[in-house]
Description:
Layout: H1 2-10, H2 15-23, E1 38-43, E2 52-62, E3 65-73, E4 82-89, E5 92-93, E6 97-100, E7 112-118, E8 125-131, E9 139-145, E10 156-157, E11 171-172, E12 178-184, E13 190-196, E14 204-205, E15 217-224, E16 230-236, E17 240-246, E18 257-262, E19 269-272, E20 278-282, E21 299-305, E22 311-319, E23 327-334, E24 340-346, E25 350-356, E26 364-365
Amino acid sequence: MILFIRSLLALRVPVSVLATAAIGASAIAAAVPGTAGVVKAEFIFETAPYPSCHSATIAEASPGNLVAAWFGGTAERNPDVGIWVSRHEGGRWLEAVEVANGVQPDGTRQPTWNPVLFQPPGGDLHLYYKVGPSPSGWWGLVMTSADGGRNWSKPMRLPPGIEGPAKNKPIVLPDGTWLSGISTEGGKWTARVERSRDQGRTWVQSAPLNDYSVIRAIQPALVRHGDGRVQMLCRTQEGKISETWSADGGETWGPTGLLSVPNNNSGLDAVALRDGRTLLVYNHSGREEVGMGHKGRGILNVAVTRDGRAWEAALVLDYLDASEKQFSYPSVIQASDGRVHIVYTWHRERIKHVVIEPVGLEPVAIVEGRWPDALTGGLPVPAR
């Protein structure tokens, strides 16, 4: 326990969270507003054979067995960037291994991008990722693992016209349909979905769901609400998170609009909790907002909702107002034991893992898109 507390202090976790971690799931409460519910915070690795990493993803391959992946190399877009995977066993994260790279048949090498882990019920663990010189010129591939991420199949390029998930995990509908959020990140930012009725063997892609001349949206996160409707939440260039809804399993969608919740033109993720709420992980900031670090990525937040419209502030996961430092590109799941697991980029130097007991959250309403000043998690977040 002493070593664990020291590790939390090294991560700048507020002191109140130390008591939370020691108490355990039976009594998740904290003296500092904005820390209730946090069970654990840790780095997946301390050192790596590359200087830069980004775009983490997490899945539970089987009860209690977590797998995380990210891309790592000299820097984003560099040809040496590969996909790295770590498994959580025996209470710790194992040393990461590179499972995919962008080496081409002619010997040249392209960078890899945005891995997405997806564990369908009763199936193999899937790893989707992109290869190519840039987001406007990349293509999608997929690998599978039948043993929880220990061994992987050879990469298979997705069929022509099929892109694979842009950043976030697909969801599985009650009829078994896989629904995946995809996007175009060239000059015309558009969000779409791909649907599969045969466990990912074939896919059908939708038309763009947003008018890019009005709302430029990419990297969808999909959540299914208790009434059966699916909500898509997207990163945008409009300063707020966008949304659109489907009442028929993703076959048709309503108009795309903007939430009151801000977005700094950075990736987000969401998950439908078993208690009926949706949990969102995102940067609650503007891209040019003073005091919010590099491109607004100096703060990372958790919010919850029961209807997708009225949002409540729950946690500030990290905060630092410093040039070129960031907390970004989160991935979130709810594990079989009910706990929520979040992984995200920590300054592009490491990947951070945070565990939350959702029953312990003490949310406060977000009014007119403004984060409650009192809910800072003990971090020096300026009043806004």
